[in-house]
Amino acid sequence: MILTLDVGNTNIKTALFEGMEMREYWRISTNRSQSSDELGILMMNLLSYKGISPDAIEGIMMSSVVPQINFTVEHMCRNYFGMEPMKIEPGVKTGINIKYENPRELGSDRIANAVAAYELYGGPCITIDFGTATSFGVISERGEFLGGAIAPGLKLAAEALTERAAKLPRFELSKPDSVIGRNTVSNMQAGIVYGYIGQVNYLVSRMKKELNAPEAKVIATGGLSVLVAEESNVIDIMDGLLTLKGLCLIYAKNAFH
What we know:
This protein is an alpha/beta fold. It has seven helices and eleven strands.
């Protein structure tokens, strides 16, 4: 089995794959002060709860957008699984041609999303990852990562609104029935949620136009994708495991060649 780890700003998403079939999936809070032993014991407990021996892990593939904890995660892999994790870095085969001005700037999670989207759903396509930040990636018909856009995530936007505007209260991030709110909370919910849906619709429309590909598939992933997909008319496919599937595909391209 292959263990995949997607280290994000809010959560570490991890899954076990046999081939391309996912066996188990867990979501762990990203804790920058956690030690490698604390993370290792947590991973051992998760495996034990499912009756899986650490010896069943044949390889580990990780992506990370939190450089501060990379050493912790790598150290945990060495100490508790006895192996070095494979990372998305220069020299690793991905199967896509990155057309970014500086490929080293491109987040490894966005590369994993592009690989999975292109291999599983074909090109041209657009990926949208609804995380702490919302990242858009555009992949051509030939499997080239052309670029994309990054916007503040829904939670980040909501937190910024309540933290920087003294009289505005904290509120639940849910979709109100009407865009014309009749109290402060529904006003804020309408502005954040429906405004966000409008942003997604416009960016996708503009990307398809610039790509000259109205048929491009749009694949959404990330925790808050459901909230947007319910109302947006531009999302074709929901795949909550897109990044982890991409990591599994990249591992296979490198480990068995």
